């Protein structure tokens, strides 16, 4: 067979599913016959999906590619509020499993033609009668298109048990709708040459099924006493990092607080020594969208305001005085002398951090909650009254000499730097179509 489609047909089928997901925003999606997980790898980026499941009878194929569904470094460094769980199972689509009931969307892309006609009946009962999803997308080869393939004899794949005409596919689909309470529309991907579309149809025909009554009908069905069976074997499961996880949320918040505290400290120290701190000015422009340009235009004004506020907040930290024993002492706001070992630091008020970083305020929710979240964290040193973050006065600790302070990340985990996953190139088993 010679190449006929651009983009390749398998990508057009996947794009059809992606477009459906963008339009209807299903939260729970399962791909039956997921094989090497190529469709799942694309769907994981659509974070309206909260549960993404793949099922295939060939567990070895799934295991080869399943790690391509793992979170990448960016997911850990910049977790969002979106939740995503990925699960992969080994099992037959002719067997029931209660864990797959009530999904918003079931996809079956070029799978049904690999089943015997007896198994197609079981497939219909399992998918439409037992799983009862809100929507189903089924694609299968259109045998009427086959004569357009040069040198094709027989079926398109050696494992195909049949290949339906458009009339045969329509007959099966309408029967399913009648028995299980669905309605269907027909379409496809892979256009025929000009002038032949009406005569042969699409290369891959697609049926899009919607349950009559929608989700409310599905909820009523789960009130019955349908058997709960678990016939599939779980091969892989992973929860993507999300700010809904309190531990992750705390880590991101701490990282953001330390980043901004260091920036504010550097700005204050630069002002004190008469040096310009361009690093702090630029960090104000690291906003999102149009705010970035506006921040750049106002950077000088913002620097002056932030520096003044920071200096005012730190005014209680006075110059050291010589003690009787030659040591250095500081005078606190009550006129009492204390050892310089307790005060050789810069105080960055939480109120200043709150007003400087939208991310800090968004993550913590309130100043009191910010104080509470930082109080027990070993990475953050708070003042005795919990009103400020304490940082070393020196630019760098001795153990960190040679490091660039500007290399601080504004969010995420250090350990995530060591973890990266390169997406596998997609293998096109249908490269000639």
Structure report:
The protein is of the alpha/beta class and 433 residues long. It has 2 domains: 9-239, Rossmann fold (3-Layer(aba) Sandwich); 247-395, no CATH class. The chain contains 15 helices and 13 strands. Strand 9 (321-322) and strand 10 (328-331) form a beta hairpin. Mean pLDDT is 78; it is low at 277-304, 314-333, 337-342, 396-401 and 405-429.
What is the structure about, briefly put?
It is built from 15 helices and 13 strands. The protein has 433 residues and is α/β, with parallel strands linked by helices.
Which regions are unreliable across 5 or more consecutive residues at pLDDT < 50?
A: 277-304, 314-333, 337-342, 396-401, 405-429
Which structural class should the secondary elements be placed in?
alpha/beta
Number of helices: 15
Number of strands: 13
Strand order of the largest sheet: 6-7-5-4-1-2-3-8
CATH homologous superfamily title of the largest domain = Vaccinia Virus protein VP39
Main sheet overview: 8 strands, mixed
Considering DSSP H and I runs of 4 or more, what fraction of the residues is helical?
25-40%
CATH topology of the largest domain: Rossmann fold
Q: Mean of residue pLDDT?
A: 78
CATH architecture field of the largest domain: 3-Layer(aba) Sandwich
- Measured by DSSP, the beta-strand proportion falls in 15-25%
- CATH first level of the largest domain: Alpha Beta
Oligomeric category = single chain
Radius of gyration of CA atoms, rounded to a whole number: 31 Å
Q: How many individual domains?
A: 2
How would you spell out the order of helices and strands? Answer: HEHEHHEEHEHEHEHEHHHHEEEEHHHE
The backbone outline, from C-alpha atoms, is elongated
